[in-house]
Structure prediction request, 389 residues.
Amino acid sequence: MTKASLQDHLRYHFDNYMSRGTVALVSGLAIISVLLILVAAGIITLFRFSQDGQRTLPFNEALWETMLHSLDTGTLALDTGWDMRILMLIVTLGGIFTLSALIGVLGNGLEMHLNQLRKGRSRVIENGHTVILGWSPQIFLILERLVTIHASKGKICIAILAEKDKVEMEDEIRDKIGKHRNVSIVCRRGNPMDLDDLEIINPHDSRAIIILATDWHYHDAEIIKICLAIINNPRRHLEPYHIVGSLRNPASEEIARLVSASGETLLFQVDNLISLVIAKSCRQKGLSSVYEGLLEAGFYFKSEPTLIGKTFREALNCYDKSAVIGFMRADAEIVLNPPMETQLGVGDQIIAISSAEPVSTSMAEIDLKESNDTVHLVPSAPRKPERIL
Prediction:
């Protein structure tokens, strides 16, 4: 094997130093500039060079003169004496080289930093935000509904993580959703199934997680893998997550049941659900209008301390403009249409549906004080009443 020469060693160490980044390059240029100024000032002092042919410069004055020549090329015109002119010309040329290299390094470093920001790899610092993992055409309808739901709740944040360019995601959202004063939509680029990429979106402090599959052929596998990546993350928090996703293949239902056993995920068969609604609507005249009214109505999950200990019968009579349909227990168990004597316990929430038709000048609401954990859907424009049943 051929022995490496001194040139090979120098080139190897130089390449390693250049690969350290912008800070290392700026530091190297600064060191070269300082050495050039010190050497030139030392030569002026040692050989007693003079600026005007009579006065000898001390070291501190020589240091100042060489620094001015390295930074300002116009200073060269004031030099007298050929020995001084030649030395200052060398210092000026060295200053031009280092200053030009410094500008280039800073420009490249700034461009690299902007490209990193464009990739969307910085960590989301939010708490109580809604996370959307994946990208599909459904995302715009979901965003529109989330914006509508939280329109009256102050500032909210929606964070999106998908294997798509950050700028492209922001442009599409801006074109189809527009800007909203109280809604902040943050886009990040990454793989939702990668644990390191998941940390970028900060799912541990999120309020809810929505999973969208990007591959139609492997829709269910992708949804289940993302759920497992979140639930089995060694850096996860102790509190249960609230994860929602859709499945398409009925054969995945058993696996989804195992994934949902912890109570942290809700995976439903979207195609079966739509087919069932269509089939029932065809068999029962007017049922489609009932479904439409229910989906347009306001669904509320609300904690109400004044109803603790009350029965379901008593809760029904507490509302004039809304219909209570059940309870959500403290352990997240949903109880719909329970027996009339079922009591509301500590930590339980009521589940109520408001009328889809506006009442007076405002939307139908639960006749209780506003709570931060209320979730509602704003109904569409009023329609003329029609007989359904």
